[in-house]
Amino acid sequence: LTIYTMFKEKGIFVVVMQKDPAGLDPDSRWEVASKMKKYDDIYEVTLRLIDGKSGATRETGFKKSVADFIDDNGVVCQDLVENQIMKMHNSLVSSKKDK
Hints:
The protein is α+β, with helices and mostly antiparallel strands.
């Protein structure tokens, strides 16, 4: 299972299909992948957008310490994670509009 996840799925844990509002163009696909090395505190997240119309792929990501997302009680701060993901999403959406 680990080998399948690492090499086939490449750490992708979410795939979302975005429908074209007009319904004319093919759906765009969003993929979120992550990886973290054993005994390392650095968490790497990649957000990829595959445009349904052109087939072009754009991606962005970050590498941060897990400690950046955890409070003093050891609880994951969901708002910090969400803010980081939304920044990545917005950067891909704005780069799509620029083209």
